[in-house]
Each structure stands twice: as C-alpha cells, then as structure tokens.
Design goal:
By secondary structure, this protein is of the alpha+beta class. Helix content is 54%, strand content 11%. The chain folds into three domains: 179 residues, Hypothetical protein af1432; 136 residues, Beta Polymerase, domain 2 (2-Layer Sandwich); 92 residues, Roll (Ubiquitin-like (UB roll)), CATH 3.10.20. Strands 1, 2, 3, 4, 5 and 6 form a six-stranded mixed sheet that branches. A three-stranded antiparallel sheet has the order 10-9-11. It has a two-stranded antiparallel sheet with strand order 7-8. Strand 5 and strand 6 form a beta hairpin. The protein starts with a helix and ends with a helix.
C-alpha cells in the first residue's frame, strides 16, 4: 500500500519543483512539531494531518490550503506560535492555521453538568468559524476535512464524548457540507454519526436494508450494456456509467417518510450516466424514456433549475427490465465534479486556469449560488446571544432546504416548512411587513401554507399594512420572527 506522503504528492500533480519543496518543508515542520505524539488510535499523530492534507489535495484547493492542512494542529497541540508559522511559511498559511486554531472546539451542553459558561464560549467559537468562513472559505473546507478524519476514529473516545462529537457532526458539520455542495463529505459525516446518535435506529435500518443495496447494484450492472447499446445506436458515447449507493442515514430518513417500507425507496442505488455536453444529457433522457416507461411524478430537471448549492443533473425513475424500478441520473463531467465537491470544484477551475487574465485574480470569488455565506456574516451580527444564534442557524440555514421562485424566475432558498411570509421577508423586509395574501403557482393560498421546491410564489402587498402578531405562531424561520417582532415592538403592538 502506498504511503500517505506518496498519495499526497500524487494527488497534487502536476506539481512544480517550487511547490514540491513547499510541501516537503511543511511536512518536515509538522513531523518535527508532532514528534513522539501518538493518537488515541495508537498511530503516529502525523498521519492525521497527512490524511487531512490528502483530502484537500483531492479537492484541488491549492498549495497553501494543503500546507495549512499539514500544519493545522501545530499551534494547538505544541509550543509553536502563529508568528513562527508566518516566519517559516507565509501570511496566507498563517491566517488559515490561526483561524482553524480559533474554531477548534464546538460542544453541546450536557443536561445537569453545569457547563453553561463553557458552552457559551464554544458557541462564540462557532461564530468565529462563521466569520472566518466568510473571509476565506478554505477555513471551513479544511475544518470539514479535519472533522471527517476524526470521526473515523470516534470509537477511541468515551461514550459521552462520542455522542457529543457525533451530534456536532450531524447537526452542524454535515448540513454545512451539504450547503457547500460537498455531498459525499456530508453523507460520510452523517453515516459516521448515525450509530452514536441513534443506535437503535441504526441497527433497524441496517436490518431493513440487508443485502438489497448489493442486489440492486448487481442488477444495475447487468442492464448497463443495454443502455450503452441503445446510446451507441443513437451516436451517443457516455464518458462513464457508474452507480451511487444511497447512504444509510439518508435511507433511514427516507424510510421515515415511506412508513419504513424499503420497496418505496426507489433510489437505494442510482445509475449515473456522465455525458460530454449538456445537450447530450437531454438526448440520453429521451432515449431512456423510449427504452423504459418513466414513473409518473419522478422526473426532476436540476440542469434548467439548479439546487441552491449549484447542484445540476437530470433525475428520472423508470420501470426497467422485468418491471424493476430504477433511478437514473444524467449529467456532464463538470456537473458530476460539482455534485461531489461543491464549492471546491470552483477552486479546481480557479487553480488550473492558466490565462494571464485569470492569473491576475488573487482572490477566489465564490459563485452566486454561495452568496449566502456573505449574507450569513451580516446576519450573525444581529444576534447578541450565541445560543440563539446557533439554534437559529440550525433552523434557518442548516435544515433541509427547498428552493422556490419569484414570478421573475429568481430562486429563493428556504428551509423546509417555510411559509409565504418567510419567503416575503427573504425577498425584502417591506414586502414581508405589507404582505396581505399569497399566490402559489397562480392559486391563492393561506399565509401559513407550507411551500415546496419549484413553487412559484407571488406576494400580494397592501401599502401601509403592518405584520400580524399571529404570524409568529406559524412562520418557520427565526430570522422572520425577529423581523416581525422588531416592527411590532417599534409600533408598540407587541
């Protein structure tokens, strides 16, 4: 088996002599700093930063991020200072390491333990993470890589700490990974947390799933030649056809919605067809629907209408050979990379683009679909209480997401269960304040109506109107409640 260092160097290719020397320097520095340190697993400590750096290299985040990954525990776990990092490397690496050191711990309060003071401090650390993330997204990407590797050795901790770390991962880090489009990292964090947070449900899900995933994967493998043959007849050549097995935690959540009936979970394993161009994806969709009858209501066009985190793909579910129901996803290579690496896939492009114009760009600018990060930076300033901030964040930013449309076609990203009033306040505070009615898909709906992805929402406003205190009983978002309460208090109506 290749050493971690060899894997890291291979993942960084193509690598200039200068960059190779920088990586060697950072690795030597980290090895010296962590000399004689052993992890609770019994392995040398240096293996952990090496694995973190390897994942960052696979994300193509650039040399400075990989160096920060190698050095991320040096200041926290040794006597080395940030000034030493700055002197030996550069300001950028030092900033990343310092930011990671500040946000190292986020803990949940255990009832009856009298940890209120410590809890407040840790929630302040979480606010620091949000601020650091807004300044440089690589901070949170390195933190996610660090958390993922640590979760793989959770078994070495005592049961109380296991549950705390698993809860952090399940309720904060996994949703954050999903919002950044890092679906694989999010899913891994969920699956690693699942047995510690919900042990009985974990055992039940494993029992229900049994060998069904493997059986379905074997079946999909058997029908790939049929798909390839049909595509070839129509002069279409896929770059790749692969399978995606649904993760265990995701299956459990789906089972809850389907009365625990595994037969109703159609995407246990999905076939993924990767095509060279967008137009090829639609051509393949047509051919698939000629081959097999589609299941009504199961087609989704995320190419024309991407998810808020930038995800693009065509999804269809069909009655395939012998009437077996199969989900098929069709996308381009670029869409597939974004589906796996999310925001990091844009760094891949940023790092490898070689034009003079591109080289002049010193700072990576996130695409429009990730502007919520800057919004989050401003939004956190309105909370004086860190506990309320974290709870609000879990509801307003990290819960399951839906995306709805304005009549002009603009996408508004909301938590699941959001109402037209939540939508109105996201468009503009005054539209929320003056809302008197709502139309969804051209039909009048009550203001407490639960919106669904793809809904086109129009707010009917009445000039001079004020929000109703009754809205506080049904709106979903804490941010919405704060805005309603603010104006009602100002007008002395609350």
């Amino acid at each position: 088996m290749k050493s971690l260092k060899t894997q890291l160097i291979e993942a960084l290719q193509p690598l200039s002599d200068r960059d190779y020397d920088l990586i060697e320097q950072a690795l030597d520095f980290a090895e010296q700093a962590h000399q004689n340190q052993i992890r609770k697993t019994g392995e040398p400590f240096i293996n952990h930063p090496l694995r973190v750096a390897l994942l960052l290299a696979q994300m193509k985040l650039g040399i400075n991020a990989v160096m920060a990954g190698l050095l991320h525990d040096v200041v926290e776990d040794t006597n080395i200072t940030i000034k030493t990092i700055e002197r030996n490397f550069n300001n950028e690496v030092a900033f990343l390491v310092q930011s990671l050191t500040k946000i190292n711990t986020i803990k949940y309060q255990q009832e009856g333990k009298g940890e209120e003071k410590e809890l407040d401090t840790d929630k302040e650390n979480f606010r620091n993470m949000i601020l650091a993330m807004a300044k440089d997204l690589r901070v949170i990407l390195i933190k996610l890589a660090d958390r993922l590797d640590n979760m793989k050795s959770l078994w070495v901790l005592e049961p109380t700490k296991q549950k705390i770390k698993a809860l952090e991962s399940l309720e904060i880090f996994a949703p954050l990974a999903y919002r950044l489009g890092l679906t694989d990292i999010g899913a891994q964090l969920e699956d690693l947390s699942f047995p510690y947070v919900y042990p009985e449900e974990y055992k039940l899900t494993r029992k229900i799933v049994g060998r069904k995933r493997e059986e379905l994967e074997s079946y999909l493998k058997s029908i790939v030649p049929l798909v390839e043959k049909k595509l070839k007849e129509n002069n279409l050549t896929p770059l790749k056809i692969k399978y995606r097995a649904k993760h265990l935690y995701s299956i459990w959540r789906k089972l809850q919605k389907e009365d625990m009936d595994i037969k109703r979970v159609y995407d246990l394993v999905a076939m993924r067809i990767i095509m060279p161009k967008t137009e090829d994806c639609y051509a393949v969709l047509g051919i698939i629907h000629q081959m097999w009858k589609p299941v009504p209501g199961r087609f989704k066009d995320y190419i024309a209408l991407p998810k808020p985190n930038g995800y693009q793909s065509l999804h269809t579910t069909v009655f395939s050979e012998h009437g077996r129901i199969v989900e098929i996803q069709i996308r381009t290579k670029e869409m597939d990379e974004e589906a796996e690496w999310g925001i990091a896939s844009h760094w891949m492009y940023h790092e490898t683009k070689q034009t003079k114009i591109y080289q002049k760009k010193k700072q990576f600018i996130p695409p429009k679909s990730f502007y919520w990060i800057k919004q989050l930076q401003e939004w956190q300033k309105t909370f004086y209480n860190s506990n309320q901030f974290l709870e609000s964040l879990k509801i307003d930013f990290f819960k399951d997401r839906i995306f709805v449309l304005t009549p002009k076609g603009d996408i508004i990203d909301l938590p699941e269960g959001a109402t037209p009033i939540d939508f109105a306040y996201q468009v503009h505070t005054e539209i929320g304040n003056q809302a008197s009615g709502a139309k969804v898909n051209d039909k009048l709906v009550p203001l407490n109506y639960h919106l669904k992805s793809g809904d086109v929402v129009e707010i009917i406003v009445q000039k001079g109107k004020l929000p109703s205190a009754s809205w506080l009983g049904f709106v979903k978002m804490i941010e919405t409640k704060k805005k309603i309460e603010e104006i009602l208090r100002r007008k002395k109506l609350l």
